[in-house]
């Protein structure tokens, strides 16, 4: 399920250039203020061993903007999208924003347009374009984080492994079949480096082919591809 959040900026809304944490905080606050069961996302999330998974992802802010040094200034009509495999999460976010408005740091907005959609994936072979980067990483022998690129086998194998763990954590069973991701149009310009809570994170946009059982592709459409989905990574649209 999807929630489109839209609002009009009379003058301008100035945010840090890396504003994903601000959007994530807005979503968490809305969930914790709602009636979502046990606030599982604020506690440990869905667990697979020592790994935690949160059943949502979100887009960048869409709209007119200017980059001003280390900040980004939005004006006019802006919007962002939240997706989740669990309708309770979407309704909790929508209900809280409808009741309390939305606050970006110190800028508060009451007049917010909310549009809930229930788009699903209906095919087993889809061409996708990343709306936010796919983040895929592992650790080397020194336990340093290594971000994989779409030129490496580990990139696609890790996307598959992440899907299996995430599906098991959220749904409660292992998927019966694999999913397959392959590049169609991916260049060096699709590499995106951002900063989250003081740490640099690397991911890749681009156009890919995604194959698998329809319900598994739909699960990924709602929750995101790769890692760090609840930090604003892995959302895609179907071409």
UniProtKB/TrEMBL annotation:
The active site is at 28 (proton acceptor), 42 (proton donor). Keywords: Antiviral defense, RNA-binding. Residues 118-238 form the CRISPR associated protein Cas6 C-terminal domain. The record marks 54 as: Transition state stabilizer. GO terms for biological process: defense response to virus. Gene3D superfamilies: 3.30.70.1890, 3.30.70.1900. GO terms for molecular function: hydrolase activity, acting on ester bonds; RNA binding. InterPro entries: Cas_Cas6_C, CRISPR-assoc_prot_Cas6, CRISPR-assoc_prot_Cas6_N_sf. The keyword Heme does not apply. NCBIfam families: cas_cas6. Belongs to the CRISPR-associated protein Cas6/Cse3/CasE family. This is CRISPR-associated endoribonuclease Cas6. It comes from Agathobacter rectalis. The lineage of its organism: Bacteria, Bacillati, Bacillota, Clostridia, Lachnospirales. The gene is cas6.
